Amino acid sequence: MKIAAVRVTPIAIQDPPLLNASGVHEPFALRSIIEIEGENGCIGLGETYGDAPVLDGLMRAKDSLVGLSMFDLNGLSRRIAASGATAQNTASTGAGYADKPDAKVFSGFEVAMLDLQARTAGVPLHELLGGAVRREIPFSAYLFFKFPHTIDPSYASDPWGEVISEAQLVNEARMMIEAYGFGSIKLKAGALRPEHEVSCLKALKAAFPNYPLRIDPNANWSLETSTRLAALLKDDLEYYEDPTPGLEGMAKLHAATGLPLATNMVVTDFDEFKRNLGLNGVQIVLSDHHYWGGLRATQTLAQMCDLHGLGLSMHSNSHLGISLMAMSHLAAVVPNLTYACDTHYPWQTDEVIQGGKVPIRNGCVTLGDAPGLGVELDYDALARLHRQYLECGIRHRDDAAQMRKFRPDWQRVKPRY
What we know:
Layout: E1 3-14, E2 19-20, E3 23-24, E4 28-38, E5 43-49, H1 52-62, H2 73-82, H3 85-92, H4 101-121, H5 125-128, E6 136-138, E7 141-144, H6 166-180, E8 185-188, H7 194-207, E9 213-216, H8 223-233, E10 237-241, H9 247-257, E11 261-263, H10 270-279, E12 284-287, H11 289-292, H12 295-308, E13 311-314, H13 321-332, E14 364-366, H14 379-392, H15 399-404
Parallel strand pairs: 7-8, 8-9, 9-10, 10-11, 11-12, 12-13
Antiparallel strand pairs: 1-4, 2-3, 4-5, 6-14
Active site: 188, 315
InterPro entries: DgoD-like, Enolase-like_C_sf, Enolase-like_N, Enolase_C-like, GlucD-like, Mandelate_racemase_C
Pathway: Carbohydrate acid metabolism; D-glucarate degradation; 2,5-dioxopentanoate from D-glucarate: step 1/2
């Protein structure tokens, strides 16, 4: 069965002013929505990043996929490489975990092809991937410090308000847990003074004593700061995520503290995975099919983690329901994914699928037996969000530049503290 047509639509989705180690989120986040149509009329869906280098790669490759078998993932890889997408993208971006445009291009198409395969077979994607070991996929409440939306008229109104103090953060957690039923909590740190962020995590521990807690400074704390604060955090954390830069730094921190360390920054491909085995810098890998090279590659990662005794969970970025469902179907088939996954989904108000947002109840996305991903495009919403992309003026994410609108002397420095 051949591919008859491929469509890529860039969209912009509203995003709140969430603080992080790199600055503050812009009013819009960019995504790319992919449709791969088979000769049988079935359409597979994919979603990936929408920043200019990734979008350029998607556009360069898409027409070359017409005529390819919908089952030929090796052919997909070859045609992407032959299109020049990988070379163009690599030249356009710097190195680092956030910059894997070739993997992001491949994964977007791969998810759409797998969705098409599953729809053609009339089975849910988790069945195509090997069979679900769980149907309820747990996610974690993902907390951010944030500016009020009134800081700039470009931001849409939101119910969260300013979140800087301990009391404001506890209220944010309570609102999110009441709305979605999450059973664990992650705090995005690295934005404010470390001592204040630790106090906020302590306040969360007091308010939710039975909830597993995580803190993620995004490598914005020095090794000295990370080690010093580990003594304060050690009894409160499920794991300590990317507190300090570099795999070597993480290895020194683990050796000094014994705390389980997690990452989505220093183990993001199989070369880094191999190096980590020698250093023992990271004990939990936060996978992300968008930049690990798709769902199948992430299944390989899961097997490697199981072989070497490493824990496994999932990283998230601003995304919509297609990516959430891809994450959920993948999580359903990975036996050793034993930590609740990250998701930004509660922060997003826009959606591109029919029926609105994917339900999260009791902290979980529940998978059924609908073919493929189990969601369908809302073409009116797709058109609206594409217009939003055309009008927003953003083509590259730049949290640092956005922060300088409010604090002109602010510079991105890592580690800052």
